[in-house]
Amino acid sequence: MHLSSTTTLHNGVKIPWLGLGVYKVEDGSEIVSTVKSALELGYRSIDTAALYDNEEGVGQAIHESGIKREDIFVTTKVWNSDQGYENTLKAFDESLKKLGLDYVDLYLIHWPVPGKYKDTWKALEEIYTQGKARAIGVSNFMTHHLEDVLKDAKVKPMVNQVEFHPKLYQKELLDYCRSNNIQLEAWSPLARGRYLDDPILTEIATKYNKSVAQVMIRWDYQHGIVTIPKSTKKHRQKENADIFDFELTFEDMEKINNLNEDFRTGKHPDEFDYGV
């Protein structure tokens, strides 16, 4: 296994196990250099969103990288204020334009806006049917949201991207997604750096001669979760990617599972202020 290793979504599209998240990376020179350095290291998956306001820079970096478009997996997302059928179609076209691309590899509903996410999903199905997105999915959906979408969906979501790390081990959601062949993807896999000095994680990291960050990302990987750690620094991007040359034992995986505190660095999807 290596940095460009992939897993296959239920529609046959391959997604890299490891990608680069770019939340809060400023558009312009910072995003361009961040994406370029990741691509130089061998990353082949970039995860952005309309909300991040850096799609233009992501597109620029991809164009300037010299890497073939079909070799890079690009994800973006529709923001809450653009949800609903017609608005989502417009928002998607705007994202494509900013990225300077003919298609994206994965398009996600960013949050389950009450009363809107099902119409938004219909728009994603339309985008998918037209071949403008190779795969479609959701983000921050709990099991009840997924069940609601699946009642009427013509196309089943391929991905659910949620906050997931050792202090937020969402086992029931992971099991549900696995049993429904929906790929779980982790945002904030390092819990925004809050637990890099956790004694149990530190002890495990020392045992494998790895960093705590590498142990946390490897833990995701061994749970079969696609992971998109964010870093603007090349040496950190390199470190985050260096997780394929060791394997956590069953006992160590259990120790990390048991660190769960249902702690979120972001909002709970049922408590998010949707303004509706």
TrEMBL record:
It comes from the Bacteria. The record marks 77 as: Lowers pKa of active site Tyr. InterPro entries: AKR (IPR020471), AKR5G (IPR044500), Aldo/ket_reductase_CS (IPR018170), NAD(P)_OxRdtase_dom_sf (IPR036812), NADP_OxRdtase_dom (IPR023210). The active site is at 52 (proton donor). PANTHER family: 2,5-DIKETO-D-GLUCONIC ACID REDUCTASE (PTHR43827), NADP-DEPENDENT OXIDOREDUCTASE DOMAIN-CONTAINING PROTEIN (PTHR43827:SF3). Substrate binds at residue 110. This is Diketogulonate reductase-like aldo/keto reductase. Keywords: NADP, Oxidoreductase. GO terms for molecular function: oxidoreductase activity, acting on the CH-OH group of donors, NAD or NADP as acceptor. Belongs to the aldo/keto reductase family. Residues 21-260 form the NADP-dependent oxidoreductase domain. CDD domains: AKR_AKR5G1-3.
